[in-house]
Amino acid sequence: MIRDQETLDQLVDMIRQFVEGVLIPHENEVAETDEIPQEIVEQMKTLGLFGLTIPEEYEGLGLTMEEEVYVAFELGRTSPAFRSLIGTNNGIGSSGLIIDGTEAQKSFFLPRLARGEVISSFCLTEPDAGSDAASLKTTAVKDGEFYILNGTKRFITNAPHAGVFTVMARTNFDIKGAGGISAFIVDSQTPGISLGKRDKKMGQKGAHTCDVIFENCRIPASALIGGVEGVGFKTAMKVLDKGRLHIAALSVGAATRMLDDSLNYAIERKQFGQAIAEFQLIQAMLADSKA
Hints:
Order of helices and strands: HHHHHHHEEEEEEEHEEH
Radius of gyration: 21 Å
Strand order of the largest sheet: 2-3-7-6
Number of helices: 9
Mean pLDDT: 94
Structural class: alpha+beta
Helix content: 40-55%
Shape: elongated
Largest sheet: 4 strands, antiparallel
Strand content: 15-25%
Low-confidence stretches: none
């Protein structure tokens, strides 16, 4: 749902100008250094990009899913590293709290995420649990007013920079599937948490992932998202359903950028006395890309 078309148009236009005027000119630097310049991060904070989808009562912009899609179209037109940095605060790193968190959890974490003061990460994937997320092995054992976390999470986006982790762990060992999994919001400075080396990737330089290891990590019972055990898998699936829509829109933006670049090159590049855009085969390739 689009709440106010004029306001959305202004936001999309502002993001388009930021993408074209700031982000695209820094793509090569990010690719070469594997880092996003800090001054760009600060600009993102000022523009409110870390809180696009966080509700307004928690200092975000509170975009609806349809509004978020139009923003993702624009963000997709530049290096995915930029969107990746703000993406977890707007998506998988905050959605669990927004959907199922207690009021105390929302009030404490969401304003900090919206301001970009804290980066969030979503810890679901494990060495032996990817698409089959219900088979995860990380455990959270109740110990009085605390839980003891043990396990390893893999390929965790923004983990090297995270201030908080949303962690999926098994709390009921009698239930082997999804029903035994709970979700926790965990401070990254909690003793017992360590990080693996940054993953080396072919592409997406500037977007950082790594392992997150929990070794007898003692967290308060208040860290249980929603205060209810056994619903963490449902929370994760609701979070990922929303995230898939966002990534689809982002991919459309990336495809649009690639088509624009291809068309511009085909018009500028000349062979045999004419622009290669005049050749039927090139036209067919561009038409297929547009389709």
